[in-house]
């Protein structure tokens, strides 16, 4: 089965650039995908097919960050209307709206879904107890510029964040103190904790760097032929993908840094990229307003990709366009 063409599934429906995305874990109903868009309307989709499930209505500004809890029962979004919102991901109902004093760029659930962390342009990290939503959040301060990403880390005992002060920081939740810091020559654009929790993946400038999640020692760093906005490590830590300003999505061997392939599918810079929880596909979101789903192993029958032995993938089929109704 040589020379198979990669045919991404295109998920349309957004009207502005797609800037962030997140997957749930694998649930009884496969897994799910949420997208953040400057149109202010985060969308939920079936993760393996891209089929639209629903749109969360309520923000009054661009949505910059989204999250799903592991079971895909809750969604969260952070937006330019200075709020972080929590939603019932089954009914679409807004459950909580947490007021901030500036744009909320990042949201993330604890593994047990009882806490929500937000990072904002106030340079502050806030932790909200979802069982006591009316109580004041815990606040962690130390960053000197707007926070891009913040994630629960080390089995929820810590947080890891990156910001426009060119740093990545680890915080101890018990004493609310910064305990580790990495400084970069440029602002880090994306931050991911590997599926097994052992590796941090950071994209900055035209580099993708990998750090040991315990020591924060740099394991590897590779240069990409473009400014990189986002990178994601495969759950098996065998390959990684990256996307950026040249409109391409790249796939590399994690051990050697060898480029395996690159694909041009988007019509604008790639803002976000992430592997699905089973590693069978990766999703990318772009300035062009679309999400695209790409097969990790081109030619495998999976989701909506049907493979016919001896022919190029879907040779006789037009690429499926998944529309939001």
TrEMBL record:
Keyword field: mRNA processing, mRNA splicing, Repeat, WD repeat
Transmembrane segment boundaries: none
Source superkingdom: Eukaryota
One annotated GO biological process: protein-RNA complex assembly
WD repeats: 56-97, 97-138, 140-181, 263-304
Keyword Ribonucleoprotein applies: no
Family assignment from sequence similarity: Belongs to the WD repeat STRAP family.
Protein name: Serine-threonine kinase receptor-associated protein
Natural source organism: Hypothenemus hampei
Taxonomic classification: Eukaryota, Metazoa, Ecdysozoa, Arthropoda, Hexapoda
């Amino acid at each position: 089965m040589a020379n198979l063409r990669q045919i991404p599934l295109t998920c349309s429906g957004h009207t502005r650039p797609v800037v962030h995305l997140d997957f749930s874990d694998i649930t009884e109903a496969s897994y799910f995908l949420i997208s953040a868009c400057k149109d202010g309307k985060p969308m939920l989709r079936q993760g393996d097919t891209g089929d639209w499930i629903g749109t969360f209505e309520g923000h009054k500004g661009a949505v910059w960050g989204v999250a799903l809890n592991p079971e895909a029962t809750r969604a969260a979004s952070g937006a330019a209307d200075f709020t972080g919102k929590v939603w019932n991901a089954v009914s679409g109902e807004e459950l909580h709206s947490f007021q901030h004093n500036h744009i909320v760029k990042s949201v993330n659930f604890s593994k047990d879904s009882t806490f929500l962390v937000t990072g904002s342009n106030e340079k502050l990290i806030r932790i909200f107890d979802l069982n006591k939503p009316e109580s004041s959040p815990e606040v962690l301060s130390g960053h000197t510029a707007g926070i891009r990403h913040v994630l629960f880390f080390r089995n929820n005992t810590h947080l890891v964040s990156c910001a426009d002060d060119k740093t990545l920081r680890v915080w101890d939740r018990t004493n609310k103190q910064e305990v580790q810091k990495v400084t970069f020559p440029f602002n880090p654009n994306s931050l991911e904790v590997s599926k097994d929790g052992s590796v941090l993946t950071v994209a900055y400038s035209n580099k993708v760097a990998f750090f040991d999640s315990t020591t924060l020692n740099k394991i590897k760093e590779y240069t990409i032929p473009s400014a990189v906005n986002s990178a994601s490590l495969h759950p098996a830590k065998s390959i990684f993908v990256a996307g950026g300003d040249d409109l391409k999505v790249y796939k590399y061997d994690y051990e050697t840094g060898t480029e395996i392939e690159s694909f041009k599918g988007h019509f604008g810079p790639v803002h976000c990229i992430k592997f699905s929880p089973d590693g069978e596909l990766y999703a990318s979101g772009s300035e062009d307003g679309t999400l695209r789903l790409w097969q990790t192993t081109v030619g495998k029958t999976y989701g909506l990709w049907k493979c016919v032995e001896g022919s190029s993938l879907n040779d006789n089929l037009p690429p499926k366009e998944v529309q939001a109704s």
